[in-house]
């Protein structure tokens, strides 16, 4: 068995930040999960629906791997990414890094992993690999999935080779800290304002605060969008609360990030943003509960109420991001 020495196999709440935490701690950088998420400008919103989808999807973060690229840039660490169409070469890339004493991040489809009990295709799943033997790979996943886990090499190969929405070509990556890194405290304002700008001025109506407003209108029609409300509506609620989001569609993570930032930066705008995201997180949990309840008897009134709450969420998050966008004038020297 080959394993990387000194790996701290802590699983946290969200897959990409769990993997990033493993890789960064191995480089001597230990930041909280909310800080990793926030410095990576991870918060977003998308209302995603198309003719080939069985049911609409509400997403609360940036697209897969964008958080990793943002975070590496903000922390001044080297991000080395490898992709290939060859399964053989893909495994060589991973084994070479582990043999050299480096944990590796992988993007793959979680459907194929042995330890996943909830089988649904998700090609944007991220894990950290820190060891292997003749039969199995040893990974760190979210705390919900077991933290330090293992899966067969054959299942890992299938997960990495999968094609479909959000998948990558056997993507693997490593992080290397070299030289003097910027103080994370000097990077919080750029991270927050970049996130706020994207949220306030989305290129299409399905994104950002405009996307939440759109969701508030369309969620009321979801009973007409499904032939099995008892399956689809509770599933949508579970995805919002328990599918690696940290609860409240990632708003709990962002709320806690802002609270941590407020310990470093004395700013009324930051305190306002934190208070509003605390409110938004509570409202998102209410929305999820209403959507889940609507599926039990096919209760349209629950969806009407969910739509009304989403209208409030759009206003609250827009006001929060407007306040946070104003931090740009308060940025400390980097």
From TrEMBL:
Where does the DUF4872 domain start and stop, copy by copy? 155-324
- InterPro entries recorded: BtrH_N, DUF4872
The name under which this protein is listed is Lantibiotic ABC transporter
The residue ranges of the Butirosin biosynthesis protein H N-terminal domain are 14-142
């Amino acid at each position: 068995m080959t394993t990387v020495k000194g790996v701290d196999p802590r699983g946290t709440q969200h897959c990409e930040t769990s993997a990033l935490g493993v890789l960064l701690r191995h480089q001597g950088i230990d930041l909280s999960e909310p800080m990793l998420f926030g410095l990576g400008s991870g918060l977003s919103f998308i209302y995603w629906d198309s003719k080939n989808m069985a049911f609409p999807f509400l997403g609360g973060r940036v697209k897969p791997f964008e958080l990793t690229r943002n975070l590496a840039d903000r922390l001044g660490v080297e991000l080395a990414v490898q992709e290939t169409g060859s399964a053989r070469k893909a495994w060589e890339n991973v084994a070479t890094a582990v043999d050299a004493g480096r944990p590796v991040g992988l993007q793959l489809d979680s459907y194929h992993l042995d330890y996943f009990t909830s089988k649904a295709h998700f090609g944007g799943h991220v894990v950290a690999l820190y060891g292997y033997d003749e039969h199995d790979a040893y990974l760190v996943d979210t705390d919900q999935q077991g933290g330090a886990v293992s899966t067969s090499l054959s299942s890992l190969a299938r997960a990495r080779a999968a094609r479909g929405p959000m998948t990558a070509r056997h993507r693997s990556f490593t992080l290397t800290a070299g030289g003097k890194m910027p103080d994370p405290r000097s990077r919080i304002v750029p991270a927050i304002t970049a996130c706020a700008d994207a949220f306030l001025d989305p290129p299409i109506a399905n994104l950002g605060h405009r996307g939440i407003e759109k969701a508030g209108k369309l969620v009321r029609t979801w009973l007409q969008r499904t032939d099995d409300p008892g399956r689809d509506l509770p599933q949508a609620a579970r995805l919002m609360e328990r599918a690696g989001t940290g609860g409240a569609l990632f708003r709990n993570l962002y709320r806690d990030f802002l609270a941590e930032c407020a310990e470093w930066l004395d700013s009324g705008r930051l305190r306002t943003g934190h208070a509003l995201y605390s409110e938004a997180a509570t409202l998102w949990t209410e929305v999820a509960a209403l959507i889940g309840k609507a599926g039990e008897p096919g209760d349209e009134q629950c969806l009407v109420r969910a739509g009304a709450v989403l209208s409030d969420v759009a206003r609250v998050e827009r006001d929060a991001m407007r306040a946070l966008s104003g931090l740009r004038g308060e940025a400390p020297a980097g």
